[in-house]
Structures are given as C-alpha cells and as structure tokens.
Amino acid sequence: MTKISGFSKLSKDEKINWVCEQYLKDTPYAKDIIEQYWNSDEKLQKLHDEFAENTISNYYLPFGVAPNFTIDGKVYCIPMVIEESSVIAAASKAAKFWDDKGGFKTEVVSMTKVGQVHFTFKGEYDDLKYHFEQNLQQFFDDAKSITTNMEKRGGGIKNIELVDKTQQLDNYYQLHCTFDTADAMGANFINSCLEQFGKTLEKVMPTEFNIEVIMCILSNYVPDCLVRAEVSCPVRNLADNEKDALNFAKRFKYAVEIANVEPFRAVTHNKGIMNGIDAVVLATGNDFRAVEAGVHAYAAKEGHYKSLTHVEVKDEIFRFWIKVPIAVGTVGGLTALHPLVKIALKMLDNPSAETLMRIIAVAGLAQNFGAVHSLVTTGIQKGHMKMHLLNILNQFDATNQEKEQAIEYFKTHTATHNHVVEFIKSVRS
Ligand code: MEV
Predict the structure, then answer these.
(1) Contact of 90 with 367, CB cutoff 8 Å
(2) Least confident of 74-83, 362-371, 419-428
(3) Which CATH class is domain 113-219?
(4) pLDDT above 90 coverage of the chain, percent
C-alpha cells in the first residue's frame, strides 16, 4: 500500500480505481458496489458529491417516520434517519401511549448561542478592561456588514463580555459572546462575527498590549439554547390495572434515579435519548455531532454525568420530562440543498428553529420512555430482537417466504441470534 499526493485532484473514477487497487484488491466487485450506490440522476449525484471532499459514493441510511405525535396540541409525523432497528418502533409506541394522555408539552427556555475569541495578554487586567469598555461599540460597528441580514431576520449579537481566565491558564483572556441566530443554526454567522471581533480587538487595543488572538470559534456547548419536553398523567393510567400502574411508576422512577447517580448507566440511558434526537437532527439536515457534544457536556454540567430525563411522582401524578440544549436550524446549511431534508422539514410543516427544538426534544423523551419502559417491564431484548429479526434473516439471504415463516414463528418464540440461525437451517433442510 502506497501513499499518494494530489489525491483530491484526481477524477472520481481515478479515485475509485486507486482505492480499489490499493485496498480492495481481494474484494470481489468492490468498484461495482461503490458505483451501485450512485444516483442515476446525475444532477442529484453531483449535489451529493459536492457536500464533502473526495466523495466516491453515497452511504444510505434508512429514512423512516414516526406518526401520531401530539406536541403542544398539534399532530406531527416525525421523520427519523437511523440504522438501528427498534428506534422508530419505540418512538411510535411511545407516541401512541401518550396520545390519549394529553400528548407531549414543550417549552423553549432560551435560544442563545455562544462563541468565543480566545487571546493572550500579559499586562494588567484593569487596563485591558478599560480599553475594552471604551471600545465596546466598535465591535458591533465593525461587524455590521455581517449582522445586517441576521438582524432583519430577528437575530444578531446579544452580548460581548471580556473574561479573565488567568486563574485557569497563564495570560488567557476571552471575549465570551452570545448570539441569537433566529432560524439558522448560525455556525457561519457566529464564526464570521468572532473573526471580525478578533480583528477589532487587535485594532482597538494599544499596540504595546501585544494582544495575541489564538482562535475565534463558536461553542457547541449551548446551555442557554434550551428546550424542555414533558409528559404526565395520573399514575393509575400507566397500566391496565392499579397494581401494575403503581409498580411501573415505582420501577420507572427508580430506573431514572439510577441513571442520575451511576454514570455507567447514565451514558447508556442518554445514548437511548440520542437515538431519538440524532435521528431527527439528521433527517432535518442538522449537525448531529454538534448536538451530541453539547448535550453530553450539559449532562455533565454538575460535575458528574447524569440522566437528561427526570421523573416525579407527586399527588398521584406521574411526570416525566427532559431538558436539553439543542442548537439547530431550519434555514441555511443542508436545509436548502438536500432534497430529503426539504421533504423532512415540509412533513413537519416547515417549522421554525424553535419548533424544531421542541420536536427533537420530544423524540428524545419518547425514545427514553420506550427504552426504560421495556427495561423495567419485559426487558429490552424481546422487542429488540423482534425488530432485529429481519437483519439476521437478511444476513442469510432469506427469501420472502422464509421471512414470513420466521416472523410467524418468532411471534411466540424468543428470537435470539442462534435461535434464528437454527430456524433457518431447519426450514432449509
Ligand atoms: C439502545 O440503542 C439504547 C438503549 O440501550 C437505551 C437504554 O438502555 O436506555 C436501549
């Protein structure tokens, strides 16, 4: 295997040939498989090719929908992009469970985004502070060409604060800046403003201060871009009879409390929440890495990693809620480019960023409800393996008839991997 220079300059065909020659020599039909995933519509394929660099193919993920979500009185069919079986089924089940109990209620607590200019200064803080305060307006004025459009859409720069960080790191100061980015996720807007602030900082400070701007970048930690979603009902309505309902409420609450005190459980608990959150973030063309990073930092904000969901049982009412930071957009980025993203947003009635935050939080809460419900009642594998059955059958190239037989059989038998394999062997022999 050799290294290559100028790879990015090669044509797509040359790139594929090189990769196949170097790394896929023993893989039959490698080039065919790569090309099989191209779109026959050349324009559409070009669009996808140009989303990133060195693209050689497309990587499909299932795009599914979870209908019947009543959120703040409005019914939604939520688009979800996810490869894991059971997630969409669990979401749909949770939507149905809560539908006759008032559905999901949400509240957007705040929508503030953050960015920072990190810089060094070796003099007296008071001198720095004095010059910063004297020139504060200049930062806003210099960024005017960037902010004008955003202001028209109701956003803009909210605040620029000088912060002394020298207790943490020698000579380290920052401009901690907050923004409202309206319906955009706002990464480009924030980063452009910050780079301008960096220049203004160097311009307005006396030369002898020797300010050195180290970097200007938005933060994906957005504890003030916060949304809350909740479900509640009388405890009695949680199951078919009072005894089961009380037992369920007790076990469910205890399970969430475990996730609050035990990080090993909390990470898996929150991973289940992210199954729902990421699936909607992806379907709507948003940056799931940004949301993931921000959510996990938020889960650890009190110094140890905790559950993002909470339960209260009080006055015979069961209340279950989530509070998460979700920085997403419904304009800009992929939202205007990717045809399926446009479809996903249209299905949601072209929501504002604020409404999308609510829907995403609900998807996370529903997912967690479904997972914890299974965990404290039947156990997770029953539903999971039922959904996973098709994946195992596909590994064995099962025919439609074999699939039908298997689905029928495993309605009354527990589907473990071995059991499914044995079943296929017996059907085929
Ligand atoms: C699997 O993707 C997610 C779960 O593990 C979440 C949980 O344990 O709460 C089922």
Answers:
(1) yes
(2) 419-428
(3) alpha beta
(4) 90
**First and final C-alpha spacing in the chain:** 44
Nearest C-alpha neighbor of 102 from the set 230, 228, 277, 227: 230
**C-alpha–C-alpha distance, residues 299 and 100, integer Å:** 31
Break the chain into its structural domains and give their ranges.
7-49, 64-109+224-377, 113-219, 384-428
Pocket around ligand 1 at a 6 A CB cut-off: 84, 268-269, 271-272, 275, 371-372, 375, 380
- Classify 181 as helix, strand or coil: coil
In this prediction the pTM is 0.92
The residue whose two tokens read 């907050």 is 178
Active site residues: 84, 271, 287, 384
Q: Which atom of ligand 1 is nearest to the CA of 265?
A: 8
Residue pLDDT, tens place only, 129-178: 999 999 999 999 999 999 999 999 999 999 999 999 999 999 999 999 99
Q: Which two tokens stand for residue 290?
A: 């940004």
What spacing in Å lies between the alpha carbon of 131 and ligand 1's midpoint? 52
Q: Does domain 64-109+224-377 have CATH number 3.30.930.10?
A: no
| Residue carrying the six token digits 């939507």 | 95
Residue 242 CB neighbour total at 10 angstroms? 11
Distance 238 CA to ligand 1 centre (A): 21
